[in-house]
Amino acid sequence: MPLYRDEAIVLRTQKLGEADRIATLLTRGRGKIRAVAKGVRRTSSRFGARLEPFSHVDLQLATGRTLDVVTQAVSIAAYGEGIVGDYARYTTGTVLLETADRLVVEEKEPATQQHLLLAGALRVLSTGEREPALVLDSFLLRSLAISGYAPSFGDCARCGEPGPHRAFNPAGGGMVCSSCRPPASAMPAPATVTHLAALLTGDWATALQADPRTRREATGLIAAFFTYHQDHQLRSLPHLDLSSDSGALGAGGR
């Protein structure tokens, strides 16, 4: 079988037989793939814990007829070590993994931007550099943008009239002018719109200045936007830790 190497983040795993496991991987060069790790559930496995969710690994794989086969695994970063022991980080991390799994639809189609975005989000989450809710909100907006669902927080999402505008509508694509505003549009505070734009562009200097009320309102709008464009809620959302004052996804989307 032909061999190839790629970097990958383990999104999820499932048991196969008595000792094997199927890993769903988001690779840097080949997008999402599913591969068998033989004997990984044995205590003597040479893969150890390197093929667990949240792991960033350098893999050698053999191309299979239906599933590829992992033949080597070298750890790049064990993000799980800084995530699984903290409930807020863990529940946020599971949403990150499920989101990437959901948004990268086609297997073996390059998804380099999604891979890099997920790796960066897991790194920041694992170190505690930023609050889990902020990491998640920014990740969701940027993942949607990469997938072709970028919201507009400046010009009108429908007609392009220069902003700022007062109304936000998920079906409309973000902020909309008074002429394009559909019924039941939200009317977020200007500070919330600024915060949303900062999360989308990765402007952390601005995003970190937002107060808890602004963050909560932004979280609700992100939840509504994500749910509209993905049709249904993520399975991991009900387990998300919502105890932070800054809020977390799901506060306004359920």
UniProtKB/TrEMBL annotation:
Membrane-spanning residues: none
Statement: the UniProt record of this protein carries the keyword Electron transport: no
GO biological process: DNA recombination; double-strand break repair
First and last residue of the signal peptide: none
Domain DNA replication/recombination mediator RecO N-terminal: 1-78
Keyword DNA repair among UniProt keywords: yes
UniProt keywords, alphabetically: DNA damage, DNA recombination, DNA repair
Pfam families for this protein: RecO_C, RecO_N
GO cellular component: bacterial nucleoid
InterPro entries, per the entry: ARFGAP/RecO (IPR037278), DNA_rep/recomb_RecO_N (IPR022572), NA-bd_OB-fold (IPR012340), RecO (IPR003717), RecO_C (IPR042242)
Family of this protein: Belongs to the RecO family.
Function: Involved in DNA repair and RecF pathway recombination.
NCBIfam families in the cross-refs: reco (TIGR00613)
HAMAP family: RecO
The name this protein goes by in its record: DNA repair protein RecO
Organism, as annotated: Kribbella steppae
